[in-house]
Amino acid sequence: MDIAALVATAGGAVIVGLAAGWFLKALLQRRTGGHAEELVGEARLEAQRVLTRAEEEARAKADAYREREEAELEHRKLEAATLEQRLSQREVTLEQRAANLAQREELLIEREVATNAIREAVERDREEARGILERAAGFDSRAAKEELLQKAEDEARREAMVLVRDIEIKAREESERRSRRVLAGVIQRMASSVVAETTVSVVPLPSDDMKGRIIGRDGRNIRAFESITGVDLIVDDTPETVTVSTFDPVRREIARTTLAKLVEDGRIHPASIEEFYEKARAEVEQSIKDAGEWAMLEVGVSRIHPEIVTLLGRLKYRTSYGQNVLNHLVESAHIAALLAAELGTDPDEAKRGAFLHDIGKAVTHEVGGSHALIGAEIARRFGEDAGVVHAIEAHHNEVEPRTLSAVIVQAADAVSAARPGARSEALESYVRRLQKLEDIAASFPGVDRVFAMQAGREVRVVVDPGSIDDASSAELARNIARHLEDNLQYPGQIEVTVIREYRSTDYAR
User: Fold this and answer.
1) CA–CA separation, 253 and 315 (whole Å)
2) Closest C-alpha to 307, from 389, 387, 381
3) Could you tell me how far CA 291 lies from the centroid of its own chain?
4) CA torsion 119→123→124→125, rounded to 10°?
5) Which of 118, 152, 169 is where one domain is finished?
6) Is the pLDDT of residue 439 over 80?
7) How far apart are CA 166 and CA 199, in angstroms?
8) How many domains, in total, are found in the chain?
């Protein structure tokens, strides 16, 4: 509040006092009837005294307010002066820093120029020294560098190939870690012994006298047996056994059962052969039906045509590389269901496709062509879904797989067939692989003997101590290992061990 406001306030009070005086005068005149002049005069005097006091108080307040404003103004002036002084000091400091930075920049430029000059001088001296050395040695440094780099590149490339192969193997193992964990339990639950059935069945006999009864007079019984059953009956010098041979596994099983019943009964003639053949055929047909139904229940599928069930049962007597085909289908179906569940897709289609993917093997001896395409045609004829049919026809890549279920069926088929103990390796290929392994190791000079051990996972090389020393033994082991990598395909790794033994012999006489 300033002095004008205080004066206005005091004037307002005077006006209020005059108004109050006039009002009191009128009121007293009304009540006292004309004797109010004196009272009005007294009231006027009182009002003047009140106005005087109000003016004095307003003047005192105005003076006090003016003093406070002056003090505050002085304080602000002092603060502004202090701030201006600080700003001046900072400006001086910044100017000093700018001068220092400029000086440092000049020093750095000078040092950089000196450093470049020194570097150029060192480079010139180096080039001169290299030229002197090249003239003294009569050899070009660039050619030496290229030759050295070429050797290092070749060695590095070879080492890199081995390293890349190891990295790929580790990456593949890491990428398949989850699948292995899922499938390990499945493989352990479904592990079965390797079946040794091929195209023959052996029937034991109680004695060798039974062979004559099986042959019959002038070979009558054996001719009747072969004509009725459609198989070849081999009676040789093997003691107390005869062999039933045919490429049809069902027909061979019927013949084996018939012969076993005839041997058990003891009455062997054409009529009894025909009688027991009919019984054996009925039993095998019933076992085929039971096997197909068992497989359906084991896998947990339904709505399969009865003809397909019969074909599935026939696979009970069919093997592939020693692996029972029906057990392979059941195992593949479980594996496919687990894979589909892990991938988040519908397991029913994958399971059904894996369960029926080898159905064509039941008739491949009767119909020509790939069992995958034959199986797909059978499934299509008996009303299977298009996705299941495609998975069957694509599981060996005769048709390019276009669905996730088809890929899962391929993976399940491979896992079931490749697990340890599922299929047996052919003896001839195994022997050829070991022979090639020994031949490669024996082709190096100084090698005396070679032994392939641990199913071809280790090669022990015995060298002539007179032609190869200890230092050359390590080089020979490395060269043999690299030669095996370049010329032989094998799973895992092969350990190459070079043995050098020096013996000195003398005789005391």
Assistant:
1) 12
2) 381
3) 37
4) 100
5) 118
6) yes
7) 42
8) 2
Q: Is 45 inside any structural domain?
A: yes
pLDDT in tens, 59-70: 889 888 889 998
Identify the band that residue 194 occupies on the pLDDT scale cut at 50, 70 and 90: very low
Domain assignment of residue 443, yes or no: yes
3-state secondary structure of 384: coil
Full residue range of the structural domain in which residue 483 is found:
427-499
Both tokens of residue 179? 């699948």
Give me the helices (H) in 195-241, please. 209-215, 220-229
Residue 32 CB coordination number (10 Å): 12
Two structure tokens written together for 357: 């993917």
Which of 363, 250, 378, 247 minimizes the C-alpha distance to 306? 378
Q: Is there a domain that residue 55 lies in? A: yes
Whether residue 2 has pLDDT greater than 60: no
d(CA 225, CA 272): 10
The CA distance from 57 to 1, in Å, is 14
Q: With beta carbons less than 8 A apart as the criterion, state whether 406 and 394 touch.
A: yes
The kind and range of the H/E element at 52 are helix 37-137
Whether the CA torsion 342, 347, 349, 353 is positive or negative: it is positive
Residue 242 lies in a domain: no
- Residue (of 222, 241, 239) closest to 231 by Cα position: 222
Last residue of a domain, one of 90, 118, 146: 118
Q: Which among 331, 357, 348 is positioned nearest to 416, based on CA atoms?
A: 331
CA proximity to 351, closest of 290, 392, 306, 293? 392
Q: CA-CA distance, 427 to 424, in Å (whole number)?
A: 9
Q: Of 6-20, 164-178, 488-502, which one has max mean pLDDT?
A: 488-502
